[in-house]
Amino acid sequence: MKTTESKKTRNTKHQKAVLDLLKNAEKALTADEIREQLEDHINKTTVYRMLDRFVEAGKIHFVTGQNGKSFYALCKTCNEEPPQHIHNHLHFQCEVCGNVECLPNTVKVPQLPGYNIRETQLLIIGTCKRCISSTN
Ligand SMILES: [Zn+2]
Ligand SMILES: [Zn+2]
Ligand SMILES: [Zn+2]
């Protein structure tokens, strides 16, 4: 009994740590980056499972970058039942530093009669302003 409880406490602690990381990050983070920044060493599967659960709960969203990796960021308005991730903000991936960030810019997601939208992933690829200013 005692072990189950401490495991549960540890999971709660990890969940909070992951959400805090995403809240304080200036860019979207990959599962690897999240894992590296956590104090405890959690295995990859646990991190992915946790992230999946957060996505299902409408707490975080992800966008798949150029390299096929998923980048996770906090949701601000998706905590709804049932959670839907209809994000209309843009994401930017920099080809130089590889960073993915959520942009404040939004686009109008068109109505698609006859289709059921589950999520949107809007990604722009180019060079970010930090990389542009560091090469000039
Ligand atoms: Zn969302
Ligand atoms: Zn960059
Ligand atoms: Zn985003």
UniProtKB/TrEMBL annotation:
GO biological process, one term: negative regulation of DNA-templated transcription
GO molecular function annotations of the record: DNA-binding transcription factor activity; transcription cis-regulatory region binding; zinc ion binding
Binding annotation for Zn(2+): C94, C97, C128, C131
InterPro entries: FUR, WH-like_DNA-bd_sf, WH_DNA-bd_sf
Gene3D superfamilies the record matches: Winged helix-like DNA-binding domain superfamily/Winged helix DNA-binding domain
A GO CC term assigned to this protein in UniProt: cytosol
SUPFAM superfamilies linked to this entry: Winged helix' DNA-binding domain
Obligatory cofactor(s): Zn(2+)
Superkingdom classification of source: Bacteria
Cofactor note: Binds 1 zinc ion per subunit.
Name of protein: Transcriptional regulator
Organism: Zunongwangia atlantica 22II14-10F7
